[in-house]
Every structure is written in C-alpha cells, then in structure tokens.
C-alpha cells in the first residue's frame, strides 16, 4: 500500500471531527444527486469532519470531494492502483491518497479509517460498498452507523430487495438500526454522527 500526503490544511480553531466515509457514483448523477453530494461535502467541511472516499475526481465523487475541499475538509482518498489513473482523468481536490493493491483492501482501509458511512446514489461500486458495510454490521464485525441518503428514491430498490428476501423466507429480518434511510443531507449527517446500537446477529 502507498500513501501520498497532500499539504496539511491549516484550520485553526476547527474542532477535530469525525471521519466519515461517503460512497457514491463515479459518474454524473441526477441534478438532485449532485446537489446532495455537494451538500454532504459542505456539511463535512463546515462541521470540521474528515472526508474518506474513493479518491476520484469524476462524477458524484468529484462533486462531493470538491465541495468538501471548498468548505475546509481534510480528505483521505482510497483507491486501488488499477483505478487510480482511470478515475483521476478529471482532477480531484488536494488530499491524502492511499493506493491499495486490491479492491478488498480499499474497502478495508475505508472501513478502518471511518467512524460512520453515508451512501449517495451510485452504480455497482457503490452498491458493493453498501452491501459490504451492511454485511459486516450484521455479523457484528463492527458497529458504525450507515446512512443511505435518498436524493431521488435511489435506495428504494435495495430496501425492496432486502424485504423480499425476508418475505420469501431466505433471510431473517435485518435488526433495527442496521442502517438508516435519510431524506435530506442534514438528516444523513445527524444519523451518521449518532452512536450506532450494537447489532446481535
Ligand atoms: C455487481 C458488479 C457487477 C460489480 C462490479 N463492479 C464494481 N465493483 C466494485 N467497485 C466498482 C465496480 N465498478 C466500479 N467500482 C468502483 O466503485 C466506485 C463507485 O463506482 P460506481 O460509480 O458506484 O459504480 C468507483 O471508485 C468505481 O471505480
């Protein structure tokens, strides 16, 4: 694993905040999703928190990261070597970059470096990250809050799939509090900063 450190931001008087991992798409989303990504970035920056994300400069990831940077956030970007160049053809803001050898290592670093997770709209990669966190919380490997932020109903489908697995007897109901669906960026940040109840599998 390689780490490249950006110049540290000087932020006198800023409270040392929480490290929040945000999962979202590497492609441009709807205007609603772009606005939500920018607002989460702003709330992370103005709240004195650190953004942990996938390290890219494109799509919703770029909108999020630039907004966080513009609002004073420290940023840790975690990216596997083979994606590093592909997702940096659009410039990302200054940040500490952790380059991993594998996708699995990327997810583990993001998990270890963060106290909470917020998922915005995205594609296969975002879905993979969300299911990974849900699984690890369910298995009590960690208990950190996960918030699914709905800008435009993006997570309805996943919730329906999970309910259908339970309804057809293939899965037990997920424990309350395993994840929270939020309708606004403000609510997403509020839930992310609340302690997560331990889940008993
Ligand atoms: C279920 C399935 C076909 C998964 C295969 N595809 C993927 N699996 C894991 N991470 C990915 C995948 N595709 C992209 N990513 C990475 O996950 C992050 C978000 O991607 P996405 O736009 O949500 O996509 C990006 O860094 C992206 O490069």
TrEMBL record:
<keyword id="KW-0203">Cytokinin biosynthesis</keyword>
<dbReference type="GO" id="GO:0016799">
    <property type="term" value="F:hydrolase activity, hydrolyzing N-glycosyl compounds"/>
</dbReference>
<protein>
    <recommendedName>
        <fullName>Cytokinin riboside 5'-monophosphate phosphoribohydrolase</fullName>
        <ecNumber>3.2.2.n1</ecNumber>
    </recommendedName>
</protein>
<comment type="similarity">
    <text>Belongs to the LOG family.</text>
</comment>
<dbReference type="InterPro" id="IPR005269">
    <property type="entry name" value="LOG"/>
</dbReference>
<dbReference type="GO" id="GO:0009691">
    <property type="term" value="P:cytokinin biosynthetic process"/>
</dbReference>
<dbReference type="Pfam" id="PF03641">
    <property type="entry name" value="Lysine_decarbox"/>
</dbReference>
<dbReference type="GO" id="GO:0005829">
    <property type="term" value="C:cytosol"/>
</dbReference>
<keyword id="KW-0378">Hydrolase</keyword>
<dbReference type="InterPro" id="IPR031100">
    <property type="entry name" value="LOG_fam"/>
</dbReference>
């Amino acid at each position: 694993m390689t780490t490249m450190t950006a110049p540290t931001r000087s932020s006198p008087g800023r409270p040392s905040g929480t490290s929040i991992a945000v999962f979202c798409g590497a492609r441009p989303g709807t205007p609603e999703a772009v606005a939500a990504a920018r607002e989460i970035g702003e709330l992370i920056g103005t709240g004195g928190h650190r953004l942990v994300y996938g390290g890219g400069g494109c799509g919703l990831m770029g909108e999020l990261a630039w907004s966080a940077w513009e609002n004073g956030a420290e940023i840790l970007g975690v990216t596997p070597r083979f994606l590093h160049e592909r997702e940096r053809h659009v410039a990302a803001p200054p940040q500490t970059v952790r380059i991993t050898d594998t996708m699995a290592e990327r997810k583990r670093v993001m998990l270890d470096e963060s106290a909470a997770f917020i998922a915005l709209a995205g594609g296969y990669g975002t879905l993979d990250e969300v299911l990974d966190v849900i699984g690890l919380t369910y298995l009590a490997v960690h208990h950190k809050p996960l918030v699914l932020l709905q800008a435009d109903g993006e997570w309805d489908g996943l919730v329906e799939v999970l309910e259908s697995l339970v309804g057809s007897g293939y899965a037990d109901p997920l424990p309350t509090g395993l994840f929270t669906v939020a309708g606004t960026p403000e609510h997403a940040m509020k839930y992310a900063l609340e302690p997560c109840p331990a889940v008993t599998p």
